[in-house]
Design a protein that fits this description.
By secondary structure, the chain is an alpha+beta fold. It has one domain: BirA Bifunctional Protein, domain 2 (2-Layer Sandwich), CATH 3.30.930. A seven-stranded mixed sheet has the order 1-2-6-10-9-8-7. The chain has a three-stranded mixed sheet with strand order 4-3-5, with no helix packed on it. Helix 2 runs antiparallel to helix 4. The longest helix has 18 residues. The two termini are 17 Å apart.
């Protein structure tokens, strides 16, 4: 699996790159790629978004074809777009979603944080990863995906650092603004972006490999 780190990149530019890689993977599954990046502050609206999801946000907004509702993207996050061929994984969309949750849960264990996913096969519910913080369940990562010809795009947004602008003016994923939390908020030790990205990619590769057909 290839890794492409785009750094901080405009959302529309990253989206165009996703579509380019989607076509590459369609032609050759060996081109499967994890695209890593972060974006200048932007709110994206998934297919289930409603007008009530925006409650004062003044920045740019993008309507996208992924599932889910409104979410924020910003420089404080690690965003990963897996471009994978689900035909090699028994067209298992539910397993794909669970694999992303599991990979993030594994990474959070390195920071002594117990996390849980929210997606189970055959059960409705919002995808994402949650932790307990000061007696309250808080969401630390969001997932929203799309699939075209059984190739995945869009992906996950993990809240790495504190960002005063993050989620202000929206109901993220249909929840209140104060539902969200970052790793920096929950863990008081040193956090290095490069180390976290490498660890998450390793976990994702392992989980996605485990999904492949025998």
């Amino acid at each position: 699996m290839l890794i492409k780190n785009l750094g901080l990149i405009d959302y529309r530019e990253a989206y165009a790159i996703q579509l380019d890689y989607l076509e590459k993977v369609r032609q050759n599954p060996k081109e499967e790629t994890l695209i890593i990046c972060s974006h200048p502050s932007v709110v994206t609206l998934g297919k289930k978004s409603t007008p009530q999801d925006i409650i004062g946000w003044q920045g740019p907004v993008e309507n996208v074809e992924r599932g889910g509702k409104a979410t924020y993207h910003g420089p404080s996050q690690v965003v990963i777009y897996p471009i994978l061929d689900l035909k090699l994984r028994n067209q298992d969309i539910a397993g794909f979603l669970q694999a992303m949750e599991t990979a993030m849960i594994e990474c959070l264990a390195d920071y002594n944080l117990v996390a849980s996913g929210n997606h189970e096969r055959g059960k409705p519910g919002y995808t994402g990863v949650w932790i307990e913080h000061q007696g309250t369940k808080r969401k630390i990562a969001s997932i929203g995906v799309a699939v075209k010809r059984w190739i995945t795009y869009h992906g996950l947004a993990f809240n790495l650092f504190n960002d005063a602008q993050a989620f202000s003016g929206i109901n993220p994923c249909g929840f209140s603004t104060d539902t969200m939390i970052s790793l920096e908020d929950a863990y008081h030790g040193e956090i290095k972006r490069e180390k976290f990205e490498a660890s998450l990619c390793t976990s994702l590769e392992r989980e996605f490999t485990n999904l492949r057909n025998p």
